[in-house]
Amino acid sequence: MKYCAVVLFALVLALSPAAKADTTAGPLTFGSGVPPSTDIEFYSGSNVVTLTFAPLDVNAVGTSANGGSSYAFTFDIAPGWTVSSISLGGSIDSTPEAPPSTPWGFEYLQELTLCSTLDVCSSASQSLTRGTASMTPLTLSGTAGAGQGIYQFAFNAVNADAASDANPEAVLFLDPAHSPEPASWLLLGTGLLAMAMVVYRREPAR
Fold this sequence. Notes:
Number of domains: 1
Order of helices and strands: HEEEEEEEEEH
Radius of gyration: 26 Å
Helix content: 10-25%
Number of helices: 2
């Protein structure tokens, strides 16, 4: 049985897809290490990027379970652009799988942090708790440095069945780079020239 398990594990590794190349979404670049099956989309009309992560499915019928994952990856944003805010959401349906008199519970915590190569960071988290069972509060310890991003989540379940009915999703709101328009440059130049002429005329003759 142990030999079969090792063979099966090796087969899974052999069939696993190769590491993905960098993914560009508008002004954002996500490198290797992004959570598997993450769908990344850029909406140019609203300057929004969405990251849709894989669903969660936990079965703790008649028992307890806990776990989570942390994914660190390279990240950067084009010069002049900023991530103004992040909205992290998703919906998880959790139901008791025990007699009415038996305590049950489910708690979930997820967090996304993105730091540009200039070490300007944006972060958001989401948590939810269901049921009345006593559970150890969840914590996340991963951090991101300059040019890195990290997505992490953790969960506890006691006599409960929990599954995503809306995948975890991050919505990134971007502020674009602003360059003065040619008309603005012309107006600025005209104003400076007018001020210079006024100063020149006010100088007393020598």
